[in-house]
Amino acid sequence: FEKDSQPSVRLVDGQAEYEGRVEINFRNEWHALCDYGWDQKDASVVCLSLGYWVSSPTAYSNAWFGQGSGPSLNMYPYCTGNEPSIFECASGVALGYNSCSNSDDAGVRCTPIPLGRNKVRLAYGPDPSKGKLEVFYNNQWGGVCMKSWNQQNTDVVCRMMSYNSARPNYYTFHGTRMHLLIGDIQCRGNETDIGLCKAFLDKSNCTDEVVGIDCSDGMHARLTGGNSSMGYAQLQENGSWKQICSSGWNNDEAAVFCRTLGF
């Protein structure tokens, strides 16, 4: 499959969103996937593609989560466990309909697990409470793409690192060490560990800007000299309001600042 035309995957009929029967949208219809050749490595790839980047995946067969309706699909995947999508795994047959019974539908459970406090750090900042966000994943440290980062993600990271700031801030980190590891993290905001948030490794839509975080108690943002939605951007640190320099300021930074203010 070409990347833009790959079928999508979902889990259905589980008791939690991270488990269920594996279904593939093929030719605009959802079909269960036959469990021929289905194993733990295949389950790992499905979990990773759905955002369960830190999980304990389990493969199920024989319609563990109930039978799908209509014909099942077969592809007999041979995944190594590290592919970003099951459609990028080697396959014993071309994806299509066959005589597989719905009693042989494949399932998966992607139980999320915490990443761990020792695998998150704020680096290259003036003190331990602020700096470039780095996570340790796949045996390496790396940054997180800035493009879709939001306040909910920031809250989770600061809470995970035992900072109790009422309003932690995030910003674009510019520096020389910009190794990018995670393309997108999606937290609800109430998670206790960033590993319990969904994350995606695809970095194709990212720039070289990575997430920086300030978990200290003394910084707030405001607009002055205009109205509630327009004005000069200022940050407060240790009780003093400071104007943000316009050098290097662009629409991406402005978008981050606006999200910090709740827009």
From TrEMBL:
KW Cytoplasm (keyword) present: no
Keywords annotated in UniProt: Disulfide bond, Glycoprotein, Membrane, Repeat, Signal, Transmembrane, Transmembrane helix
PROSITE patterns cross-referenced by the UniProt entry: SRCR_1, SRCR_2
Disulfide links within the chain: 79-89, 187-197
SRCR domain mapped to chain residues: 9-111, 120-216, 221-263
One GO term describing the cellular component: membrane
Pfam families: SRCR
Membrane-topology descriptor: Single-pass membrane protein
Location within or outside the cell: Membrane
Matches recorded under InterPro entries: LOX-like_protein (IPR050912), SRCR (IPR001190), SRCR-like_dom_sf (IPR036772)
Primary localization: membrane
PANTHER family per UniProt: LYSYL OXIDASE HOMOLOG 1 (PTHR45817:SF8), LYSYL OXIDASE-LIKE-RELATED (PTHR45817)
Protein name: SRCR domain-containing protein
